[in-house]
Amino acid sequence: MEHYNYNGKEIIGIDHGFGNIKCRHVVFRSGVKAYDSEPAMTADALYYDGKYYVVGEEHKGFVSDKSQDEDYYILTVAALAKELEFRHITECEAVLAVGLPIQWIGAQKEAFRKYLMRNELIEFRYHGQEYLVRIDDVQVFPQGFAGVVQRLGDFKGLNILADIGNGTMNTMLIKDGKPMSSRCYTDKLGVEQCIIRMSNELLAVSGFAMPYDVCEDFLRRGNAELAEKYTSVMHKAAEEYSDTILAKLREYEFNPEIMRLTVMGGGACILKHFWNGENCRVQYIEDICVTAKGYELLALNNHLNRKTDREIWEWLHEKSESQTLSMNAFLIEGLRKLMAQEANKKPLDVRALAEELCREMRTQRLFVLPEGESPESTVEAGDDIPADILDFANSF
Hints:
The chain is an alpha+beta fold. Helix content is 39%, strand content 23%. It contains 13 helices and 16 strands. The strands form three sheets. It has an eight-stranded mixed β-sheet. It has a five-stranded mixed β-sheet with strand order 14-13-12-15-16, covered by helices on one side. Mean pLDDT is 83; it is low at 321-329 and 365-382.
């Protein structure tokens, strides 16, 4: 199980979508409903601050400011519950890595950060398990960009990135792996706009409102087991939406003859199924969790801006996962002190110092280091983000 832990703090990426909440390992719909007593018809209720919350049964409506009500805070607690359950962690310090649409982040970044940091300690119960999380920091990054930050080296020449979520489409031009800060756009052209159009046209044909889930599933799969009179209308609506997306991209100077198009987000499946992309160089990123993973990577690199901290972290992640989990803040702080004391020695051997400290701490029983385990990396190549790219992510 891959995830980032820095200096004893879990780095948890949360992509607060209008349609779905995505973390590294879990995805659920962004609807939330509160109850004063435990709901009888679900075992998936979250208990927090004296109330029960059922999340994931429907999508949240579009809002231009995610901090304007309580919903996204409760959804954040729910994301922590589900992700920490997956990670088998019930108590931790956490760094939240989140994002906002590219053109909103400048005006809303600080307010959203304060919104998510308003309670340092968060206690909740989920699936009968009590959890305690201390929020150490919240870092906010631009949507879309975070999803490709680890593969920018593949963006040779001129590229245009379209991140199509449920509420918005974020567009960015990328030249030779470098995002162009003056060519970033956010439009209210998310998947919901396609479903609204489809629902209205189906209503005119059938006289009844087609369930949202049926329309959503049709877009995801590209087909549905329905009568042809319905699927033909749905197919036409999806094609028209795809044409609208491409028209907007052309407004931003997308030229398929000289540019490559990358499409990600929940809307990627619509273009893949319903747009004739002939004569275009197009790639689809279908991992719906890729943006949350990118947030985590950006947050990790922000913490690793000190050379000594990077060396410590890299040494830790040469160990197996069980060893890494055993090496707590005592080790980190002790190793940092040793490195400061040995700083006048050239070259400074971080790994030798770390092994020495581990032996000393095992003797003092400050932690138990499993014996006989072969080294195993828990991270992938490419986790190191160039300084200029990291500066861009933090510049909004």
